UniProtKB/TrEMBL annotation:
GO terms for biological process: double-strand break repair via homologous recombination. PROSITE patterns: HELICASE_ATP_BIND_1, HELICASE_CTER. Its EC number is 5.6.2.4. It is found in: Nucleus. It comes from Glonium stellatum. It catalyses: ATP + H2O = ADP + phosphate + H(+); Couples ATP hydrolysis with the unwinding of duplex DNA by translocating in the 3'-5' direction. InterPro entries: DEAD/DEAH_box_helicase_dom, DNA_helicase_ATP-dep_RecQ, Helicase_ATP-bd, Helicase_C-like, P-loop_NTPase, RecQ_Zn-bd. Residues 32-206 form the Helicase ATP-binding domain. Keywords: ATP-binding, DNA-binding, Helicase, Hydrolase, Isomerase, Nucleotide-binding, Nucleus. One of its GO terms (cellular component) is chromosome. This is ATP-dependent DNA helicase. NCBIfam families: recQ_fam (TIGR00614).
Length: 489
């Protein structure tokens, strides 16, 4: 059943009045206009580009309800809270909301003419019969305005964060072919993009595809080399202290920060580590050295995590650096993250790009350090092989499309890690360029000395030679099983 299109919307007015933004960023207007014209839209754009606005604004100016499908509770809850603060009728149904609230939301939906303008749900929730029934009622009343799929790369087995339940989102085009869809992601290779389009049964001939550069020119990418022989803690501490010292000698910066309710003695950042035990020991070490650091991982009590997050977001003293396992910070729109450090090589290229992208969301210069060691590389490869072996029985049982999907996933993960290793080992190319190429971009991104290669290519080669364990040594250690790791946590 066709929707009620054709109304004229003053999107500039809504941008200013509801979202409190002065102007659209490049291409936001085009994406929003396509959405309001009822087109299916695919938007790929850099981290912190402002993708959410592209489905939030149409949802407000248009008729009916927009269903937003999001993989992360933190992402949902955060967006819902900020929109509610702006007076928008927004709701979420997920495991964190009380039953009474859920009942009220469902009552609103069941009437077929919901007051809710945006509803955030998980892909798993979209699989439930009772929810599908409600969607049919809303659709029959011509009130199902559009479906927005955030972090759409989760649909593809070739993507780094594949979630099987995302596949079932193909239900939407099957049941409601006239309801437009929006897919949004920061991290899709050409292959992942194609996969998403096919899975969701979007018509490539009609789809409006917007692919923006993944380039983040204000991020300074640097690889620092390490080996098991040496503890890289002192290197990091020296770097952080130098950053503090630079701030202390710049009084005008202190005034600027004070005007924005930020502290001059705080250089906020995130350190990502693959191991929970590192989170706690590293945070304790930093605290002993006078740096306000807090651990954050899924094994900590909820209250401790909530306290760490709130203190960090509010720039409170003692909460300057969060030492976290992966995924921390997704959906948290903290603008002044001045550095993101990867304590060892992460599991995928996309994960690295996305996590590094939590830095510098205010557009100001920020640093992304990756500590790379060949022993860690071998541990990561070992872990991946073990994980694949663990899934081998299911793999053997599956046939046809299922088997092909499993295979794609294994290959996708291996390729992504290989590409990240190549990024770390490469001393012959700008880091921004390597990232752009990975995501299939043709144009050379700008880099005004914003990477270690552009800054000092000769020094980079020297540091690499000095800092890494030799391949011969690693190969012997590998044969002895030295890099066998049980599991990341
Ligand atoms: N036109 C605009 N003018 C100013 N700020 C904007 C504009 N559009 C979006 N923003 C701001 O940009 C920030 C990033 O937006 P958003 O969280 O949607 O990013 P994203 O593209 O989803 O990034 P990520 O993939 O990293 O989550 C937010 O603080 C948002 O309010």
């Amino acid at each position: 059943m066709p929707g009620k299109r054709g109304a004229r919307h003053d999107i500039d007015f809504t941008l200013r009045r509801v979202f409190r933004k002065h102007e659209f960023r490049p291409l936001q207007r085009e994406v929003i206009t396509a959405a309001l014209n009822g087109e299916d839209v695919f938007l790929q754009a850099a981290t912190s580009f402002g993708k959410s606005l592209c489905f939030q604004l149409p949802a407000i100016v248009d008729y009916g309800i927009t269903i937003v499908i999001s993989p992360l509770l933190a992402l949902m809850n955060n967006q819902v809270a900020s929109m509610r603060a702006a007076g928008i009728k927004v709701a979420t149904i997920n495991s964190t909301i009380p039953p009474s609230v859920k009942t009220t939301i469902l009552e609103d939906l069941r009437c077929g003419h919901p007051l809710t303008r945006l509803l955030y749900v998980t892909p798993e929730y979209c699989e439930l019969d009772h929810f599908r029934k409600i969607l049919r009622v809303i659709h029959s009343q011509r009130e199902l305005s559009r479906i927005a799929i955030d972090e759409a790369h989760c649909i593809s087995e070739w993507g780094h964060d594949f979630r099987p339940s995302f596949k079932s989102l193909s239900f939407f085009k099957r049941e409601f072919p006239d309801v437009p869809m929006m897919c949004l992601t920061a991290t899709a290779t050409a292959r992942v993009r194609e996969d998403i389009i096919t899975t969701l049964a979007l018509d490539p001939a009609k789809l409006k595809l917007f692919t923006m550069t993944t380039s983040r020119p204000n991020l300074h990418y640097e690889v620092r080399f390490k080996s098991d022989e040496e503890d890289h803690y002192s290197d990091f501490l020296a770097w952080l202290r130098a950053a503090h010292a630079r701030r202390a000698t710049n009084p005008s910066r202190a005034d600027q920060l004070a005007a924005r309710n930020q502290r001059a003695d705080n250089v906020p950042g995130i350190i990502y580590t693959l191991f929970r035990r590192d989170c706690e020991s590293l945070a304790a070490r930093l605290r002993a050295d006078g740096i306000g650091a807090k651990p954050y991982h899924a094994g900590l009590p909820h209250t401790e995590r909530a306290d760490a997050l709130a203190g960090w977001v509010e720039n409170r003293e003692g909460y300057d650096v969060i030492v976290a396992t992966t995924a921390f910070g997704m959906g948290i729109d903290k603008e002044n993250v001045r550095f993101v450090v990867h304590w060892q090589i992460p599991k995928s290229f996309e994960g690295f790009y996305q996590e590094a992208g939590r830095a510098g969301r205010d557009g100001k210069a920020s640093v992304c350090l990756l500590y790379y060691g060949r022993e860690d590389r071998d541990r990561a490869a070992n872990m991946m092989a073990r994980d694949n072996a663990r899934r081998e029985p299911a793999f053997r049982e599956s046939v046809g499309a299922g088997a092909a999907a499993q295979q794609a996933q294994v290959m996708g993960r291996a390729k992504s890690l290989q590409a990240l290793v190549a990024y770390c080992e490469n001393t012959a190319e700008c880091r921004h360029e390597t990232i752009a190429k990975y995501f299939g971009e043709q144009a050379k991104p700008p880099c005004e000395w914003a990477c270690d290669w552009c800054k000092d290519a000769v020094g980079l080669v020297r540091r690499k030679e000095k800092g890494l364990a030799s391949e011969e040594w690693c190969s012997t250690q590998r044969e002895m099983g030295a890099y066998a790791v049980d599991e990341y946590d």
